[in-house]
Here is the input.
Amino acid sequence: MKLLFDENLAPSLVPALADIFPQSEHVSRIGLGKAPDREVWEYAREHNYTLVSKDSDFHELSLLYGSPPKVVWICRGNCTTRQIEFILRNKLEDIRSLVDNPESTYLIIL
Here is the structure.
């Protein structure tokens, strides 16, 4: 499973979660840090990433266009990078189900 972390999440999540989400990337590390959402969306679609964001923008795109890419929307207020890491580790099976189910397009983590 490859995740593409949006710019509103810390780049340090990539190495912190490499044991369970190998080959993941952060938009800033691939030159998309300030890119429009549609450009990030297309990159994720073309490179088989699941998008992870704290913004509703990618969730809204998934409602309009379906998948790919699949979207994990983290609906939490201010929290630390460590807390985000913990959340994603605890939701590993849910994320795996999202990726493996061809009919699923997004996962909302409250």
